[in-house]
TrEMBL record, chain A:
<dbReference type="InterPro" id="IPR003439">
    <property type="entry name" value="ABC_transporter-like_ATP-bd"/>
</dbReference>
<keyword id="KW-0813">Transport</keyword>
<protein>
    <submittedName>
        <fullName>ATP-binding protein</fullName>
    </submittedName>
</protein>
<keyword id="KW-0547">Nucleotide-binding</keyword>
<dbReference type="GO" id="GO:0005524">
    <property type="term" value="F:ATP binding"/>
</dbReference>
<dbReference type="InterPro" id="IPR051782">
    <property type="entry name" value="ABC_Transporter_VariousFunc"/>
</dbReference>
<dbReference type="GO" id="GO:0016887">
    <property type="term" value="F:ATP hydrolysis activity"/>
</dbReference>
<feature type="domain" description="ABC transporter">
    <location>
        <begin position="2"/>
        <end position="230"/>
    </location>
</feature>
<dbReference type="InterPro" id="IPR003593">
    <property type="entry name" value="AAA+_ATPase"/>
</dbReference>
TrEMBL record, chain B:
<feature type="transmembrane region" description="Helical">
    <location>
        <begin position="418"/>
        <end position="441"/>
    </location>
</feature>
<protein>
    <submittedName>
        <fullName>Uncharacterized protein</fullName>
    </submittedName>
</protein>
<feature type="transmembrane region" description="Helical">
    <location>
        <begin position="349"/>
        <end position="368"/>
    </location>
</feature>
<feature type="transmembrane region" description="Helical">
    <location>
        <begin position="62"/>
        <end position="81"/>
    </location>
</feature>
<feature type="transmembrane region" description="Helical">
    <location>
        <begin position="139"/>
        <end position="160"/>
    </location>
</feature>
<dbReference type="InterPro" id="IPR043742">
    <property type="entry name" value="DUF5687"/>
</dbReference>
<feature type="transmembrane region" description="Helical">
    <location>
        <begin position="302"/>
        <end position="320"/>
    </location>
</feature>
<feature type="transmembrane region" description="Helical">
    <location>
        <begin position="374"/>
        <end position="397"/>
    </location>
</feature>
<keyword id="KW-1133">Transmembrane helix</keyword>
Amino acid sequence: MITIYNLSKTYNSNTVLNINGLSIPKGQSFGLVGNNGAGKTTLFSLLLDLINPTTGYIKSNNIAVHECEDWKPFTSAFIDESFLIGYLTAEEYFYFIGELRGVSKKEVDALLATFEDFFHGEILEQKKYLRDMSKGNQKKAGIVATFIGNPKVLILDEPFANLDPTTQFRLKKIIKELTEKRDVTVLISSHDLLHVTEVCERIVVLNKGEVVKDLATSEATLKELEAYFAG
Amino acid sequence: MVKKFLSLQWKQLKRSPAFEQKLITKIFMALFALYFIACFSFMGIAAYFIIKKEGDGLDPLFVVNSALIYYFIVDLLIRFFMQKLPVLDIKPLLVLPIKRRISINFLLAKGLVSFFNLLPLFFYIPFTIVLLIEGYDVFGVTLWFMSMLAITCTVNFINFLINKNNLYFVVIVGVLATFIGLAYYGYFDAAPYVGSFLNGIYTNYYYALLPFGLLALFYYINYNFLRKDFYLDGSIKKKVQEVKTTELTFLDRFGKVAPFLKNDIKMIWRNKRPKQVVFISILFVGYGLIFFTQSVYDNQLWIKPFIAMFITGGFLMTFGQNVPSWDSEYYNLMMSQNIKYRTYLESKWYLMVVATFISFILAIPYVYFGMDILYFVIAGACFNIGLNSFVVLWGGVFNKTAIPLNEKAKAFSNTQAFNASMLLIALPKLLLPIVIFLIPYLITNDLYTGVICLGASGVVGILFKKPIFKFIEKQYQKQKYATVAAYKKKN
């Protein structure tokens, strides 16, 4: 689904990302871990064509993302608050995303109904604009919005951060269900090794912009990751 | 401490996205500033001799004094719209061991270092030197000079207040408007009194106490105003707004661009800054009243297409020229969601067209001043819709300043997105209608040919909408990464 060719990003003379080749097959749940500055968000921004690669390119479903906009219909992402529209209520925001992705109001409502648990009564019918919600609730709204319109590629940057423990468990369940059908390619970055090993079948460790580990998740993965980051 | 503040400020300035503009823009800005400096300096040197020669034996200093009040008012007006107010991000300073007194004094002092305060010096200094050479009383002239500085600073602080506080705005504008109204209708003209008062500073020294007193007073008011708000729940706290939802389904007929239009209307309606801007754009419709009511302009043909453009172009000038910064807070979403750049730009264009059309409807009563004026307004509207809208959109490519949507002029946040570089981009918009009208008019010597050409320019623009959009889209695409990066740096 996603193939990375000779990708690098350099600011002035500082290389923040350098990936020779990486291929993510369709339906994989792909986890990205690494310390601050490892290049996780840079990689996601490159995937979304928000920054310009210095060398190389990314192909998503055989479309070079920096050349053409055709990857947009099947891609959705939540990186940070700049993916939210602060002056809308949560419902209005979901409907807006729905309209962009050709999903009717009814269908959006039906989808939202399945997330009632996840929302925990704090998102819908709140008479509050998104900008006035807490960081955690903003994140909930942003994450759920990415599920609208059956995207084939889903990119979530640190989805577990800022969420309360209950919501973290629910989110893990949602992501697992999503990837069970092997239809949606999910890319997740996280600082929480436990969460990411639970949710992702493949984990890539970035360090200073380079891939240092590429693991198929197994019983031993968490230990291995812990050993790597502790040392 | 002050040194630390200064270095912080210098870094903020140097690292702001607006400063990292293209060299050519910087050069233009420098020329712009130099032009004003040259004008002021020339006036400062020449004023004395011109008045001496032409002034029927009046004292040059007294003549200048009698005119200064008008300068002060214009100065305040220009400052209100153009002067950037000092910004100091206080949140991190609150918990640091810095005395509030120092932070606030620094904030206020920083506001004095501004082009608007330095410019008058280029008049006052040469003028004062000329007076001294011509043998005026040294002490009196020096006192007069110091008083002028005090008044300049006072105007600076008044502007600060009326920008930040609605009560002061109403009071001060009210007082000014009353005096201007009284003078205009011939009841009472305060200007000569101000003039003779300024003369008084030179003749009776103690008059100088008043300008310095005023300066101290306004400094004090500003200080107290900021001091009071220097808390987390003071000026920084966000107010939770009550939600009013609307469906706006009638906009669905616009098809692909409908979701954006609906969104933009909510954006305007629910955020302070765009609301302010739309309000100003409505005022633009009344712009013609200033000119069409005065017979002086009857024969000034070149000004008419210009005004016609302004009457219907308020929204273009205020809202349009800040596209795409209105979406800066969620620009990443816009750039990665299922949106074609083209559709996004087109939606903005429709919004401008609709708003221009509404302004046109509002402007129809201008027919009162004659059919010719209405023709001009129609031609101006056509030009705005068909050509100017594209120029405005194109200008948006260079917009690199994020707009915090829900922040009106507040004490500790950046307020003016409207700055001199924006004015520079605005220049072609202002000159185009005059050129398009004047050239055919001068060739044929027929008023209507000029008007028709102005209107036709809009029609031609519409006909070439597709290739024009293609061009504009390409420009936006080219700047996309730079824009995304710039919007990341919030003010």
